[in-house]
From TrEMBL:
Chain residue ranges for the region called Disordered: 76-114
Record protein name field: Large ribosomal subunit protein P2
GO CC annotation: cytosolic large ribosomal subunit
A GO molecular function held by the record: structural constituent of ribosome
Highest taxon of source: Eukaryota
Keyword line: Ribonucleoprotein, Ribosomal protein
C-alpha cells in the first residue's frame, strides 16, 4: 500500500509517470526502506495509466465490498424462536465482560482523574 500511495503522491504532484527513483525518494523522506520487487510491480501495473481512471475504477470496486453493516439472514418461521431465546444469553455475556473490564481498571492502582 505504501508503494501505491507514494506513486499516487508523485503522480498527483505533477509527475505523470513516476520512476522507481521518485518513489524511493518519497519513501526515504519518511524513513521507509523500499523493496525493489514490490516497487517494480506497482510501477509496471500503473505505468502509462491515467491516475484518475485508476482511482475511479477502485472506487467502483470498493462499492461492492461489505462495510461492516448489519447482515440480515432470512430464516424459516420455525427457527425464529431459538434465535430469540439466545439473545438474553448474549446480553448476559456482554454484561460479564463489562464487569471484568471495570475490575481490571481497579487493579491498576490509580484512577484516570486522580
Amino acid at each position: 500500500m505504501r508503494y501505491v500511495a507514494s506513486y499516487l503522491l508523485a503522480a498527483l504532484g505533477g509527475n505523470p509517470s513516476p520512476s522507481a527513483k521518485d518513489i524511493k525518494k518519497i519513501l526515504d523522506s519518511v524513513g521507509i526502506e523500499a523493496d525493489d520487487d514490490r516497487l517494480n510491480k506497482v510501477i509496471s501495473e500503473l505505468n502509462g495509466k491515467n491516475i484518475e481512471d485508476v482511482i475511479a475504477q477502485g472506487i467502483g470496486k470498493l462499492a461492492s465490498v461489505p462495510a461492516g453493516g448489519a447482515v440480515t439472514i432470512s430464516a424459516a418461521p420455525g427457527s425464529a424462536a431459538p434465535a430469540a431465546g439466545s439473545a438474553p444469553a448474549a446480553e448476559e455475556k456482554k454484561d460479564e465482560k463489562k464487569e471484568e473490564s471495570e475490575e481490571s481498571d481497579d487493579d491498576m492502582g490509580f484512577g484516570l482523574f486522580d
